[in-house]
Each structure stands twice: as structure tokens, then as C-alpha cells.
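Hello, quick one for you while I still have it in my head. Could you read through the record and tell me how the C-alpha cells relate to the sequence? No rush at all, and the record is pasted right below.
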Amino acid sequence: MDGTEEDYTEQFNQLNWQFCTGKVGSMNVQKIVAAIETAAKRNGIVREDLYREMHSLYHATMEAISGVTRGQTQLGEILRTVGLRFAVVRGTPYRNAEEGEWIAVALYGTIGAPIKGLEHETIGLGINHI
């Protein structure tokens, strides 16, 4: 990846967008969702008391997980584990601000059997309107 987090911070600040990053590893989809939701709430990307924000984040997260798992959102039940880095971005991607805010969740890392060396790279992206 070209650039540093400081470069992205500067670009996102210029666009008036918000973002946060984090890491999660698990055999449990619920723990992945919880880690992403917790990071987004702690960093002020979404507000827990606003249903539409949490709902949008949930759908973007599940879409990204679906990409990581190639449509089969099971992990531990079928002996798969993931080690992922994630980013959550919230902003107004269209020239016309009336198009509203959108939220994106990007996941990148490894997936495979819970045995070191039997994993491969994976990536997923989910985008949803707020």
C-alpha cells in the first residue's frame, strides 16, 4: 500500500471524511462484527444511539465479511479462522452533498484452517448508505 496513515488522514480531513482502522483475528463472525462496531463507535464514526448509523455499519460489515469468506459467512463451524486488518470510512463521496453519507468497511488479511501455514490472503469490501 502506498502512503502512510498520516497521508490518508490528511486526504480524509480535506474531504471532511472520518475513518478508523484496527485488527481482529477469530474463528467467530460475531467477534469480527463486534470489533469493527466497537472501533467505529469509539472513534466517532457512528453513534450507537442512532439506529440508521448502526444498521448501515452492520450491513457494510456483513458485505465485507461475505467477500472475505466467499459468500459462506461461517468460520469456526467449518474449521476456518481469519486474521484481518480493517478500515471503516464514512463520508460523502458524491459531488452533490444531497446524495448523503455513505459508510465503507474494508477487510484484508488471511483465512484458512486453524493451522499455521495453511492460510491464504483474502479481501472484502462493503459499502452502504446511511
